[in-house]
Amino acid sequence: MPHVLLSRRAFVASGLAAAIGAMLGATRFRRPACDHGAGRSDHGPHPTPRPGIDASHVLKAEQLKDAALAIPAFDEVRQIPEIIDGIRCHCGCATDKKRYSLLSCYEGDGMAKDCHICQGQARMAFRLHQAGKSLAEIREAIDAKYD
């Protein structure tokens, strides 16, 4: 294999280009985000759970045939809608005025069926609720992981 000799200027320029590329790549791929937004915490505070909220609008398993892997998350959300309604979605959809809370991602179009952030938040909330954590503790844990 032949050796390639670079001039000092070419060597410095290639190093600088590599450093800039690494910095740009690090900011671009810092954290996973679904197609629905940036997954950032600057979308406002967690919502107040609505009085009398229930799971009657959460999609059922038969409505999720095209998203079978999401069914466990939807099943868990149906068990604790009053908790899920008090959590802000971190995938970025919180900027959508039609979405009040993470619970909204499991209703209507069922956006959560295709979003791993929505599913992860709900499953984490369910586990923490089962462990006896309060809504405030669940929010804090979700923020620590997804912010």
Structure description:
The protein is mainly alpha-helical. It has a domain at 61-146. It has five helices and no strands. The longest helix has 21 residues, at 8-28. The radius of gyration is 21 Å and the shape is globular.
Give a quick precis of the structure.
By secondary structure, the chain is mainly alpha-helical. Helices cover 41% and strands 0% of the residues.
Q: Helix count, per DSSP?
A: 5
Helix proportion of residues, in percent? 40-55%
Oligomer: single chain
Number of beta-strand segments = 0
Largest sheet: none
Features:
mainly alpha, 41% helix, 0% strand, 5 helices, 147 residues
Helix and strand arrangement:
Layout: H1 8-28, H2 71-79, H3 81-84, H4 116-130, H5 135-146
